[in-house]
Design a protein that fits this description.
Structural class: alpha/beta
Order of helices and strands: EEEEEEHEHEEHEHEEHEHEHEHEHHHHE
CATH architecture of the largest domain: Alpha-Beta Barrel
CATH superfamily of the largest domain: Metal-dependent hydrolases
Number of domains: 2
CATH topology of the largest domain: TIM Barrel
Distance between the termini: 34 Å
Number of helices: 12
Radius of gyration: 21 Å
Shape: globular
Length: 370
């Protein structure tokens, strides 16, 4: 199959390309840019005038709900949503049922994804067995099975000694540990940002210090071990200031933010709208503005969809009882470009398409990035 895409704006940050040119594709690979190669006869031609032609997006957090939660979504449905949203590479957290703490489970998931032949799936292995925060998993075996890193998903490790040992082991073998900064005690059971709105609505709060205290701990452990850590779903201005300082210090840390936090604040909860029940919680306008600025200055490395399909019935409950999460695969590109247009127009488009191989240690394409 030979394809000719003409008159499109080609954007490829990895190779420094941003120009209007024709693209020639043969057997799924780029054959030439600009002029057709000798003997090239297109089977199909697409006129991309006024459109952007770019590598597929990389989403750093998409729950595919398999295995264990097929009543919420299936691998087929979520990968189809990814393709429709321009996402060609997915990183999925380990909080499935059963947890991705055994090589066989990882191999099964990757086998299912390969058979569907749609988006590329890169699983994160569980950092501890069953995500219980006690015994470490066999990271080497999970890596051989296809894991690109190790995480605890939304389950914090209570024993800091366990996290220390995990980072020491990860450093020894060059693995990346993905952590969402959240103190296991402060804000436990909270459902909204701790502030005036949560107080008025009578909702239990999650203060910003739940994020910043965890960040201080993580950074001290990184200083001690030298392990590479990716911070998942930053949510606060104070937390981003700590990340900015850590990067300036030279610590091997990267971070991402959920696309919903790029646009929404705790005010969007309105009158207990359970669709705004997210983890981490939506915070204030000041925090949202800091997230937008952090994307622009490079403090935040990537925007992810934090795609978390939830059963309809789980969102019809009262706010505090509703399951946290929202879908976002199909909206990742459009919402990221909305941020770019609202702030700096075309000047932000290249940053919104920057590659993220330094995060996932692969070169599958480009990520929605700030």
């Amino acid at each position: 199959m030979k394809l000719h895409i003409k008159n499109g704006r080609l954007i490829d940050p990895a190779n420094g390309v941003d120009k209007v040119a024709d693209l020639f594709i043969a057997d799924g690979k780029v054959a030439a840019i600009g002029n057709a190669p000798d003997g090239f006869a297109a089977d199909s031609t697409i006129d991309a005038t006024g459109l952007v032609v770019a590598p597929g997006l990389v989403d750093l957090s998409a729950r595919l709900r398999e295995p264990g939660y097929e009543y919420k979504a299936t691998l087929e449905s979520e990968m189809q949503a990814a393709i429709q949203g321009g996402v060609t590479t997915l990183v999925c957290p380990p909080d499935t049922d059963p947890v991705l703490d055994e090589p066989g489970l990882v191999e099964m998931l990757k086998h299912r994804a390969r058979n569907l032949n749609q988006a590329n799936v890169h699983p994160l292995g569980a950092l501890t067995m069953g995500l219980k925060g006690q015994a470490l998993t066999e990271m080497a075996e999970l890596t051989e099975a296809g894991c690109i890193g190790f995480a605890q998903a939304e389950v914090p490790i209570l024993d800091t000694n366990v996290l220390l040992r995990a980072l020491q082991y990860a450093k020894t073998f060059g693995y990346t540990v993905w952590l969402r900064p959240q103190d296991p005690h402060i804000g436990r059971g909270g459902v909204a940002h701790s502030g005036p709105l949560a107080t008025r609505l009578g909702l239990s709060g999650v203060p910003v210090m739940a994020e910043t205290i965890a960040l201080h701990t993580i950074f001290e452990l990184v200083r001690s071990t030298g392990a590479r850590v990716h911070l998942c779903r930053m949510s606060s201005s104070a937390g981003l200031e700590l990340v900015r300082a850590a990067k300036a210090e030279g610590l091997p840390v990267t971070c991402d933010v959920g696309v919903h936090h790029l646009h929404m604040t705790d005010a969007d909860i309105g009158f207990f709208d359970s669709n705004a029940r997210l983890t981490p919680p939506l915070r204030t306008q000041r925090d949202r503005d800091a997230i937008r600025a952090g994307l622009l200055d490079g403090t935040i490395d990537a925007v992810c969809s934090d795609h978390t399909p939830v059963d309809d019935d789980e969102k019809l409950l009262p706010f505090a009882e509703a399951s946290p999460g929202a879908t976002g695969l199909e909206l990742l590109l459009s919402l990221t470009l909305k941020w770019a247009e609202e702030l700096h127009g075309d000047a932000a488009l290249l940053r919104a398409r920057a590659p993220v191989p330094h995060v996932i240690k692969r070169r599958p394409g480009a990520g929605a990035r700030g």
